[in-house]
Specification:
The complex is a heterodimer of chains A (114) and B (113). Chain A is an all-beta fold. In chain A, 0% of the residues lie in helices and 53% in strands. Chain B is 0% helix and 51% strand. The interface between A and B is medium-sized, with 24 and 26 residues.
Chain lengths: 114, 113
């Protein structure tokens, strides 16, 4: 079974600054995958970034990067040069290696201040 | 363009009535999912289907039913047995498992009074 915990219900950041959203997970699987999704006010879920647990290198997608600490079961998301369009609810999610089921955390609401 | 279509966007029903939410995808994905989103609860899995004519219960399946007769379609019925049906419902699909991401529809907001 997978559990995902996002300990920050809300965060705020100034435009152009950097912010880090926290996520911890628990799993009994040796092989698993981690994801960050963004949900803007339109409520459309958008994939931000994903990480395979067997890869030591942290995933990066443009201004978005992760800090994957496998031993600590931590998977934080760093947003650099924050933009107004980054304002959204962010969800961390995990999936066991051969499973279809994707388990989500409760989300962090990010506000970007101009 | 390929994508997932959920209809309608808003749905209103009286308590005690069953209601069916539509989900259609043209991404040729094998797997499809239904999630429920409530404020402060994140997304919780209701049902998922790995392949046509097969589906599994998720974490909160009670009061819901699904069918998967066609690859493209995965309708969700909210029955009168569901105690708190008012919520935002999201349908998703994926090519497979593992690192295959979910692609989501735009959601249906169901209000039951």
């Amino acid at each position: 079974a997978q559990t995902v915990t996002q300990s920050q219900p809300e965060m705020s950041v100034q435009e152009a600054e950097t912010v880090t959203l926290s996520c911890t997970y628990d799993t009994s699987e040796s092989d698993y995958y981690l994801f960050w999704y963004k949900q803007p006010p339109s409520r459309q879920m958008i994939l931000v970034i994903r990480q395979e647990a067997y890869k030591q290198q942290n995933a990066t997608e443009n201004r978005f990067s992760v800090n994957f600490q496998k031993a600590a079961k931590s998977f934080s998301l760093k947003i650099s040069d924050s933009q107004l369009g980054d304002a959204a609810m962010y969800f961390c999610a995990s999936r066991g290696g051969s499973n279809y089921k994707l388990t989500f955390g409760k989300g962090t609401l990010l506000t970007v201040n101009p | 363009d390929g994508g997932i279509t959920q209809s309608p966007k808003y749905l209103f029903r009286k308590e005690g009535q069953n209601v069916t939410l539509s989900c259609e995808q043209n991404l040729n994905h094998d797997a499809m999912y239904w999630y429920r989103q409530d404020p402060g609860q994140g997304l919780r899995l209701i049902y998922y289907s790995q392949i046509v004519n097969d589906f599994q219960k998720g974490d909160i399946a009670e009061g819901y039913s699904v069918s998967r007769e066609k690859k493209e379609s995965f309708p969700l019925t909210v029955t009168s047995a569901q105690k708190n049906p008012t919520a935002f419902y999201l349908c998703a699909s994926s090519i497979g498992w593992g690192n295959s991401p979910l692609h989501f529809g735009n959601g249906t907001r169901l209000t039951v009074t």
